[in-house]
Amino acid sequence: xxxxxxxxxxxxxxxxxxxxxxxxxxxxxxxxxxxxxxxxxxxxxxxxxxxxxxxxxxxxxxxxxxxxxxxxxxxxxxxxxxxxxxxxxxxxxxxxxxxxxxxxxxxxxxxxxxxxxxxxxxxxxxxxxxxxxxxxxxxxxxxxxxxxxxxxxxxxxxxxxxxxxxxxxxxxxxxxxxxxxxxxxxxxxxxxxxxxxxxxxxxxxxxxxxxxxxxxxxxxxxxxxxxxxxxxxxxxxxxxxxxxxxxxxxxxxxxxxxxxxxxxxxxx
Length: 268
Description:
Elements: H1 12-43, H2 46-57, H3 72-88, H4 90-101, H5 107-144, H6 157-174, H7 177-186, H8 192-197, H9 199-213, H10 218-256
Helix pairs in contact: 1-3, 1-4, 2-5, 4-5, 5-6, 5-7, 5-10, 7-10, 9-10
């Protein structure tokens, strides 16, 4: 197995120093994004958007969530602002992640990883949108069916919004499947042929995962979770195949022209 020599190698302590600064700038980006997110959540009433599906599920346009502490409304707003801060800081997090990892990647891998990271943001948003507009209403109706005359519910703000946000983020996270496959392919841990041969096993795992994330009947699972995840798995195979095609092309070019380009200098 051929071992490639990484150009521009840095001492270990320099790597740690670079990592420290990149983590620091990433934290600052999240803090600034959270401050902006706090203003957006407060002035644009994002809380109302999260309560709306509950009102529709319970057929009560005047439904309001209760809180048990005077500080609860503030901390709920703060948590929503932090979630928004992570999303707004995502481009900066991508930049620092790419800048730190890029010296260890081949040129073809560098060109593939950055668009993939931004694609991950779009997939996350798509998963959240699917959860909000399709899965969440069905899930609320499913749980509502278990109400009886002997039960009287009180919707508390932390528990209720915690359930909604966890569901939105769960859908967003599972929609990152193609990016996970791409990362594993870049590291050489999976191959397109391996993914194709394990397709049936993947479908079984997707079914189990969908049954946990989306309560309801089999049709709901198929339409809202299983079918999109199967498509995303196939898309991950496509991305993995692209990685190995680029890698094989680069190896063929290296074998055909093993000498470095004129004027190229390797740092020791």
